[in-house]
What does this fold into?
Amino acid sequence: MVLWHAPARYRSRAAGSRCAMPCFVYILRCADGTLYTGWTTDVAARERAHNQGRGAKYTASRRPVRVVWEEAHDTRSSARRREAEIKRWPRAKKAALMTSR
It folds into this structure.
C-alpha cells in the first residue's frame, strides 16, 4: 500500500506560524441579507467558491454572496481566532465593524 504524503506547502504548521500568504478574515452578505464570516488566504477565490456553491453549506442556498469586509492577519491562528470572535458577535456589532472601515 502506498501512502500519499502532501508536499510541504500543504502540511499543517504549528499554531501561530506565519502563513505562506497573508490570511484574511472576511464577512459575506448573502442574497437573503444574512451575514457569513470565514477565513481564507485568497478572498477573491473564496468568494467565487461560495458563489459556485463550493463554499460553506450555509452560503450554498443563499447565493449570490459578496464580500463586504475583510481583515488581513500574519498568522493562520490569529485569523481563526478573529473569525471565531466575530462569529460570536450579534449582527449589530458586525454591522458596526463593517461601517467603521
Notes: Residues 1-11 have pLDDT under 50 and may be disordered. The two ends are 53 Å apart (CA to CA).
